[in-house]
Amino acid sequence: MTDHTGGDSPDDPHADAPQPDDPRPDGTAPHPGEPHHGGLSTRLNWLRAAVLGANDGIVSTAGLVVGVAGATSSRSALLTAGLAGLLAGSLSMAAGEYVSVSTQRDSEQAALALEREELATTPQAELDELTGLLGDLGITHDLAREVAVQLTARDALGAHARVELGIDPDELANPWHAAWASFVSFTAGSLLPLLAIVLPPHAWRLPVTVVSVLIALTGCGWASARLGSAPVRPAVLRNAAGGAVAMAVTYAVGLLLGAAGV
Questions:
Q1: pTM (2 d.p.)
Q2: Is 182 a member of any domain?
């Protein structure tokens, strides 16, 4: 008989199944845009390389061209210094990311190889170890044992990699991805202060560059905070303050060197 009361039928097998918009046990509703651990980890890796590259490109090139502007008004000198800084910085960032992430990947692969060998030679000890690790998470021993057995039967290496090593064997760090992300983001960041210092008339070069750089750094700070689900204000202040200090210091040095005729 169909239940017309508007509630769930007692025999409905889906009556207690959680729905996408069901509240959590604490009474709060889930949010579709809320970050989850797996996706957030991958996203933050890309975010780190892109934001660091863009910030470094903006700040280092801005500091370089502003410093040169303090010593000379030559447009060609500014363009030469800016292009040299752009190329040197972007290549350096790319090489540094490639080496760093390659080292990380080598370490992950070595750890996985060792774990694969241990699973082949001492499977029972590895099962006991996985049970203990699950138990450390607050799971009762019997349930931890059952979960360990099921995980081992399904994918022993994957289970140990994630629980014991904190590694996802299907998503190892890619050094080429990191290198290209850093190269492109540094280049994009460097172009803004370079164009801002060479395109305007002489009297407007410094004001346009300083304002453009501070706006760009504010945007980078806002974007990094929003994408990383972090507080916006500290990120924006850090970026803007760092850029302002860098430009002030290099401009002062450029003025001193220009006055000294160096």
A1: 0.69
A2: yes
